[in-house]
């Protein structure tokens, strides 16, 4: 360190970074301007994405080699674009193509570099340029950039000499791909026009290399910061499966790839090499775990099976015991719909077939060449999902074991297998905000009149008083008999009076209502009426009269509902019957017993959050399917419409923000059998828990016996 720094003073070129408080001051003479925050925190903090990949293609190879690149490595890169000189090129499915309109190599490179700088220069740290006749190991390239410092101007690739040029100058060969840092791209951009006009070259990679050398003084290197850019040049008629050279196995990029089949064969071979490396790493780690575990207090008994996988979950009570599901090769004896036996099909059948095949393969790997096993029959199968480690299997297999001398014997053997949980992946979701207006829709029948006052009070307290961005529309469902007498006696007159009082209390609030006459209040038919009276971008919350609206839930409704992507069906918390739970004792209400004396009602689909545009799209598909058979709508709910007639995600989750007091619901027998049965089950399961019901029966028997 310089002498000044040694004495405690900052040396030349160094600042004394001492924290200080900057007082806030606002000029009273200037109007107040609201500070606009960025949409994402990474934008405000100046974070960049790691890697952008550009693939140069042409008219001759767009539908062949470019497609092969897209199918093999494109999904491993965070962002990949294809660049071509074609005009109005037809884009193959699943590819993002940028057409510059000029196929001259130098012009294509110039336009590509300008486009990358303009659209992605401020978003990414590294830019990888490759051709479509290059096979790149995506995972190796991503690992390479994680080990390089972004503070340097990097021009990394396979260094080649210029023909007849300076012996010290090198350019990066385009066929093997090359890596540019963001800082180099920003410095290069002002000189691109000069390079286009002053530098003559036949090859685009030579032109770019000459441009970087002449204006920035940076030459291509194959090694930087201890990292090597390994490449491999393919000879004609190469057999990738037979390549065993260390240079080939270590290559980040392989060139030239002459056709699609060779690209797929290379991908298969490198995937096999990568898998072998991973399996070897797993074996080495397992050996280290065994060696280290022997030195722990538990000794060798502390080694879990499989080695390196979390130990099985240990339940603390009988309520936490994870049950096993029994299955055979044809049937499953724990069905999603609750039936005792169902046919094994779909993903479950594929899962069982794969696990049996894996079990036999592992047995053969362990006992060959002395014994050779083949499966005769699956006698018994058990599986369970352990959230701490994955899916566990126990199989009783009837096997035929053959010796080297040709003797065979049939035996039964029990094996245990684990399909461990793999790396957790965060699924990208579209951006949503809590500022969206929510349109509440409340259907009301005559049976609901006793609960309307409480609903309106909670709505006023939690939304109108807090100025939440939420509106309310009431849907009055008249029975035909009541509709004929509405001129003399309006059954909803009391509700309309309460709405009038709310509108007087909150002058800026209007609560419209819609009157409907029907004997069967189908949820879909009611939503058809409401949907036509609102804009397509409306966010609906379909509520029930027992719902207690609060800001916490409305925000989750906004965040969990994404236009053209996802709809939200919350599972509300239903309180039990206090007469059975407390049996005459005083009800205790505190934060400690919140969500205790009740259950989440999974049979109810009355509440839903969705956008009007998504509902209209799904409803159009439904109308085309049922034609004019409107009676089908009586057996459907909005949930069924989205489930069967939309490609959206249906998010169904428990919602602690929706708490409903106990009440015995009236189930309309005019609805479909399934909806009526679901309503009855909701009432029965909402009475009390098993322990409460058992106590009630016990007390009743005690009273009868005395």
UniProtKB/TrEMBL annotation:
The keyword Transferase applies. It is found in: Golgi apparatus, Golgi stack membrane. Keywords: Glycoprotein, Golgi apparatus, Membrane, Signal-anchor, Transferase, Transmembrane, Transmembrane helix. GO terms for molecular function: glucuronosyl-N-acetylgalactosaminyl-proteoglycan 4-beta-N-acetylgalactosaminyltransferase activity; N-acetylgalactosaminyl-proteoglycan 3-beta-glucuronosyltransferase activity. InterPro entries: Chond_GalNAc, CS_glycosyltransferase. Transmembrane segments: none annotated. It is a single-pass type II membrane protein. GO terms for cellular component: Golgi cisterna membrane. Its EC number is 2.4.1.-. It comes from the Eukaryota. Belongs to the chondroitin N-acetylgalactosaminyltransferase family. PANTHER family: CHONDROITIN SULFATE GLUCURONYLTRANSFERASE, CHONDROITIN SYNTHASE. This is Hexosyltransferase. It comes from Dryoscopus gambensis.
């Amino acid at each position: 360190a310089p002498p000044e720094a040694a004495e405690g003073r900052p040396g030349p070129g160094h600042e004394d970074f001492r924290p200080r408080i900057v007082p806030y001051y606002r000029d009273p003479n200037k109007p107040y301007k609201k500070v606009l925050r960025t949409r994402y925190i990474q934008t405000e903090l100046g974070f960049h994405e790691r890697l952008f990949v550009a693939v140069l293609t042409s008219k001759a190879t767009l539908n062949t080699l470019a497609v092969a690149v897209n199918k093999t490595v494109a999904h491993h890169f965070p962002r990949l674009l294809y660049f071509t000189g074609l005009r109005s090129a037809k884009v193959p499915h699943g590819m993002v193509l940028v057409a510059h309109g000029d196929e001259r190599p130098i012009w294509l490179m110039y336009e590509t570099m300008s486009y990358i700088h303009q659209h992605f220069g401020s978003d990414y740290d590294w830019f990888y340029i490759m051709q479509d006749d290059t096979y790149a190991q995506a995972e190796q390239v991503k690992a390479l950039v994680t080990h390089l410092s972004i503070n340097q101007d990097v021009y990394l690739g396979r260094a080649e000499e210029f023909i007849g040029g300076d012996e010290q100058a090198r350019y990066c060969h385009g066929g093997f791909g090359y890596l540019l840092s963001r800082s180099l791209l920003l410095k290069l951009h002002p000189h691109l026009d000069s390079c286009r006009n002053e530098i003559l070259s036949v090859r685009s990679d030579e032109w770019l290399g000459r441009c970087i050398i002449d204006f920035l003084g940076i030459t291509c290197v194959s090694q930087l910061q201890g990292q090597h850019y390994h490449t491999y040049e393919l000879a004609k008629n190469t057999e990738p499966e037979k390549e065993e050279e260390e240079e080939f196995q270590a290559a980040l990029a392989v060139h030239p790839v002459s056709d699609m089949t060779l690209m797929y064969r290379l991908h298969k071979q490198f995937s096999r090499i990568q898998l072998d490396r991973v399996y070897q790493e797993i074996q080495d780690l397992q050996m280290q775990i065994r060696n280290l575990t022997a030195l722990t207090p538990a000794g060798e008994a502390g080694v879990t099976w499989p080695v390196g996988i979390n130990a099985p979950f240990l339940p603390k009570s009988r309520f936490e015991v994870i049950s096993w599901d029994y299955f055979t090769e044809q049937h499953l004896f724990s069905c999603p719909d609750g039936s005792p036996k169902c046919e094994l099909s779909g993903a479950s059948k594929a899962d069982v077939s794969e696990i049996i095949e894996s079990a036999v393969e592992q047995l053969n790997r362990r006992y060959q060449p002395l014994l050779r096993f083949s499966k005769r029959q699956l006698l018994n199968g058990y599986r369970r999902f352990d959230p701490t480690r994955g899916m566990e299997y126990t199989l009783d297999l009837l096997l035929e074991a053959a010796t080297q001398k040709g003797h065979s014997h049939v035996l039964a053997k029990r094996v245990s297998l684990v399909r461990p949980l793999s790396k957790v992946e965060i699924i990208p979701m579209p951006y949503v905000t809590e500022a969206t207006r929510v349109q509440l829709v409340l259907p009301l029948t005559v049976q609901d009149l006793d609960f309307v006052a409480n609903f309106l009070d909670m709505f006023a307290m939690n939304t109108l008083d807090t100025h939440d961005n939420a509106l309310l529309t009431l849907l009055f469902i008249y029975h035909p008999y009541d509709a004929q007498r509405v001129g003399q006696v309006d059954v909803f007159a009391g509700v309309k009076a309460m709405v009038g009082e709310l509108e007087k209390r909150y002058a800026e609030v209007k609560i419209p209502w819609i009157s409907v006459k029907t004997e069967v209040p189908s949820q879909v038919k009611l939503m058809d009426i409401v949907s036509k009276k609102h804009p397509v971008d409306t966010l609906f919350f379909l509520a029930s009269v027992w719902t207690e609206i609060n800001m916490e839930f409305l925000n989750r409704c906004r965040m969990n509902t994404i236009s053209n992507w996802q709809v939200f069906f919350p599972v509300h918390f239903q309180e039990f019957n206090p007469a059975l739970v407390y049996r005459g004792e005083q009800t205790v209400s505190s934060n400690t017993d919140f969500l205790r004396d009740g259950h989440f009602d999974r049979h109810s689909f009355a509440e839903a959050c969705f956008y009007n545009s998504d509902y209209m799209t799904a409803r159009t598909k439904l109308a085309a399917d049922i034609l004019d058979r409107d009676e089908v709508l009586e057996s459907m709910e909005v949930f069924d419409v989205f489930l069967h007639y939309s490609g959206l995600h249906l998010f169904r989750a428990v919602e602690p923000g929706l708490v409903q007091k106990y009440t015995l619901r009236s189930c309309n027998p005019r609805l479909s059998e399934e909806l009526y049965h679901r309503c009855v089950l909701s009432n029965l399961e909402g009475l009390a828990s098993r322990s409460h019901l058992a106590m009630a029966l016990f007390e009743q028997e005690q009273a009868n016996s005395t």
